[in-house]
Amino acid sequence: MSYPLSSVPAVAQPAYVQGTLDTLLSADGSVEPAALSLADTTFVVLDLETTGGAADGAGITEIGAVKVRGGVELGVFATLVNPGERLPPFITVLTGITEAMLAPAPPIESVLPSLLEFLRGAVLVAHNAPYDVGFLKAACARHGYPWPSPRVLDTAAVARRALTRDEVPNRKLGTLAQFFHAAVQPTHRALDDARATVDVLHGLIERLGSFRVHTLGDAIEFAKAVTPTQRRQRHLADGLPHVPGVYVFRAADGRALYVGTSKDIATRVRSYFTASEKRARISEMLGAATRVEAVECAHSLEAEVRELRLIAAHSPPYNRRSKYPERVVWLKLTTEAYPRLSVVRSLADDGAAYLGPFSSRRTAELAAAGVYDAVPLRQCGHKLSVRTPTPACALAELGRCPAPCEHKITPEEYAATAALPFRSAIHGDPSQVVDALMDRIEALSGKRRYEEAAVLRSRLIALLRATVRMQRLSALTRLAEIVAARRNTIGGWEISVVRHGRLAAAATSPPREHPRPTLDAVRLTAETVQPGPGPVPAASAEETERILAWLERPDTRLVETSGDWVSPVRGAARFTALLNRAEAAASGKDSAVRSSVTDRSDDARSLRL
């Protein structure tokens, strides 16, 4: 007997993905009753019998499901299913199901609505769940039913981690049913196997208590391939708050090992003890940690800033970024009669022009090389006298330097032609420097000297990136105070007080209340910030950039400012599009830009705005 279904398109087997802790959160980030104890969770324990083929939407011959909660049976779902295809003889031998039994049975498309309703609001439990879930998902996809994506618990996976080889030789359903003295032994019939799985589930839940697993979320994560260290240390996540803030993993001697931030501290810390965490250094850190401290914050911006400050203060060994904000360098135009560029590690209130900060000396020297390509600044490190000439170097003989050492140019002429373009570039309009570099790139491209053009392009990128960044920072840090607010998800207002680019205070007003009282109170208690020299006078550049990103969000409102928040009309920001295209060309992500700089002289001008 056959059941032709040639008119139904084949459906590829869907991927099976075990639920994660993220699925235990509702849309607003609050914890659902998914963190309920296992005793209060409703389970639908399901088993399928199939024709043994691939999960293509057909092939299901029998469905058995039992709904339980707290050890009490709430309902039963059982039916034979016409698979629409021939039943292999070995399946009949294995299960006792015959084609004569299946002929009058309903097809899967008629069974699915009732089954999906039976599954609604429950956790799906199966032994070797990927197999059963794969068949059901394929059937839903084939017949146009949306898969409800229930949380899934695999008893086979739980048993692999809860039971040792000394207790059971394998994790087959029959072996586990015998070990836990199940009232019904599996018989390769769906309902019998589902009832056997119910007893196995209850036996495993009792065993999970010794592993400190008491909730559904814990059980789902326990079933995954976590390391012994993660399983042993997961108690470190107990008792942490579900609020935005910073968490600090500490060693036995109190040293900070790792600092992180999250909108939900408890959920984020718990994720370190799940199978999704695979970083070797974090595994090492977890082995050394003895406790986790939580620092609750008013909102996400305060959490980000506190994270940066804690990392800078403690230099945790397992953090890789933001550990040494003091290790930045600046490009300084000295205050000599014939100024020159110098790479320095700190700012001074000496009236000199500074560009930066740069994360490394190499990047600063790359930007300096771009300046040398554009303006006739001297490159020697000598201190020149306006009275006594000094012998010139090879650069002067090559026409690459105006030779101020030999007094071939006056200090006034040198300041106008060499120093002033650099000062204008970093504080106002960088077009003179950018145009000079672009002219050289075009000339080299026209001569098919593409490698040299690419070198100039990298120098242009380093110089322009630093200039755009510094002008953005300076626009904010020159303001003595700026107060901003944005709505949160529960109807309150997240309030930030920023002084000279440093977060001075943060608060969140209660929902359905006017935010002004909260704002006035937080300003009175805000940190007093004394500015220093340079574009980042009171905080690290990274902190000020985090604040800028928060302020520039479309839903952020500026409440009060102590002055005008402005940037130069013809400042470096107008070259942002050029910078983005040049960076794309350098990284190889934009073939059109790459060819315009390195392949075709006719198109090199397309990099201009």
From TrEMBL:
It comes from Paractinoplanes brasiliensis. Residues 242-320 form the GIY-YIG domain. Keywords: Exonuclease, Hydrolase, Nuclease. Pfam families: GIY-YIG (PF01541), RNase_T (PF00929). One of its GO terms (biological process) is nucleotide-excision repair. The keyword 4Fe-4S does not apply. Transmembrane segments: none annotated. This is DNA polymerase-3 subunit epsilon. Residues 597-609 have a biased composition (Basic and acidic residues). Residues 584-609 are annotated as: Disordered. GO terms for cellular component: excinuclease repair complex. The keyword Nuclease applies. One of its GO terms (molecular function) is DNA-directed DNA polymerase activity.
